[in-house]
Amino acid sequence: MIFTAADATALGGRETNQDACHSGDRLLAVADGVGGAPAGDVAAGLAIQTAVERPGDTPESIVSAANAAVRARGDADPNTTGMGTTFDVVVIARSGGRWVVRGAHVGDSVTLVHTDGIRVLTKSHTLANELIAAGHLTEEEGERHPQKSALVRAVGLEPTIRPDLWELPAHRGDRYILCSDGLTNTLGDGLWPLLVALRGETPAVCANELVRAACQAGPRDNVTAVVGDVRGGAGWLN
């Protein structure tokens, strides 16, 4: 099985694009350079490059390798010291005689799957969410927290990285959508009906329409979408 995939990205409300992405037949990925830190675009690009250069690796090992690569670049180049990036990786692979889709998540980009309904597969690694999970804040208090969007986990910030991992059976027709937070924050609840409306469109149309809608709504950040549909490929088995 393979992905039929496409991606789209736009500056949105920024002067430069610190998002990077990849859409391939076995690998989907999106990275969003950490704002307020140096060289976010370098970190995001390096994370994606690392993923593309490691075909067949698990998402967890890809994230670990990307973390090492970003930190090594930061150590070697003072202009990039302290850089970091969010990173979501999705791969399709054989496991125990069946096809599965596996993902790894670090940061506040969002991965969704559209089957009969739409499910969010990731949770943002923000200060507010950490405090809510620890029982220090309620959901309502988290929304009002002055640093609610501050990232507490990103590729490149620490010597080791702990991504959230997930795995699902690969079903033909399932659609995976990876978005930078510039897209999800801008569209908000409007993302769900738009995804439903685009269900019958190709991944290319879906990715472009998501980015176009977000840009039309006036984003304050870069906007990126990666869309992959699970399809039968050479040697495909039920």
Number of helices: 7
Strand order in the largest sheet: 1-10-9-6-7
| Helix percent band | 25-40%
* SSE pattern, N- to C-terminal: EEEHHEEEEHHEEHHHE
State Rg.
Answer: 17 Å
End-to-end separation: 9 Å
Q: Which CATH C-level class is it?
A: Alpha Beta
| CATH topology annotation | Phosphatase 2c, domain 1
Task: Find the structural class using helix and strand composition.
Answer: alpha+beta
Total domain modules: 1
* Uncertain spans: 234-238
What does the largest sheet look like?
Answer: 5 strands, antiparallel
CATH architecture: 4-Layer Sandwich
Please report which band the strand proportion falls in: under 5%, 5-15%, 15-25%, 25-35%, 35-45% or over 45%: 25-35%
What's the mean pLDDT score? Answer: 91
Oligomer: single chain
Number of strands: 10
What would the principal axes of the Cα set say about the shape? globular
CATH superfamily annotation: PPM-type phosphatase domain
Can you describe what's shown?
The chain is an alpha+beta fold. The protein has one domain: PPM-type phosphatase domain (Phosphatase 2c, domain 1, 4-Layer Sandwich), CATH 3.60.40. The chain has 7 helices and 10 strands. It has helices spanning 40-52, 59-76, 127-133, 139-144, 181-187, 191-197, 203-216; strands at 2-10, 19-23, 27-33, 85-95, 98-106, 110-114, 118-120, 164-169, 175-179, 223-231. The protein has a 5-stranded antiparallel β-sheet. A hairpin with a 3-residue loop joins strand 2 (19-23) and strand 3 (27-33). Helix 1 packs across helix 2 (59-76) and helix 5 crosses helix 7. It starts with a strand and ends in a 7-residue tail after the last strand. Mean pLDDT is 91; it is low at 234-238.
